[in-house]
Specification:
This protein is about 0% helix and about 50% strand. With about 110 residues, it is mainly beta. The model has no long low-confidence stretch (mean pLDDT about 95).
Length: about 110
């Protein structure tokens, strides 16, 4: 069983930055892919950034150039660095891992508001 736990959410003003971390994957090579999804109020959960086992990285168009997904070798965490945050980035952010099964964290709230 894999237990994913996010941290780092909070409230920030537009234009600000946050860094989310996900503990639990153990290794970036253990899974077919690791990533971050988000779910805004009243909307479906959608992918934000994905890190494939091959090393390939992809971002949704809405965050490209502003968000960076990375693996922190020192902390063994999957991180999401979010810069130039906008109000539309407000959502619950979920850590995600997949091998033969999908695994999800419990989510961390990000609020971008003036």
């Amino acid at each position: 069983q894999v237990h994913l736990m996010e941290s780092g959410g909070g409230s920030v003003q537009p234009g600000g930055s946050l860094r989310l971390s996900c503990a639990g994957p153990g290794s970036p090579f253990r899974f077919v892919a690791l990533g971050w999804y988000r779910q805004a109020p009243g909307k479906q959960r959608v992918p934000v950034a994905l890190l494939q086992r091959t090393g390939s990285i992809s971002y949704s168009d809405s965050v490209k150039g502003r968000f960076t997904i990375s693996w922190d070798n020192a902390k063994n965490t999957l991180d999401l660095t979010m810069n130039s945050l906008k109000s539309e980035d407000t959502a619950v952010y979920y850590c995600y891992a997949i091998d033969n099964t999908e695994f999800w964290g419990q989510g961390t709230q990000v609020i971008v508001s003036a």
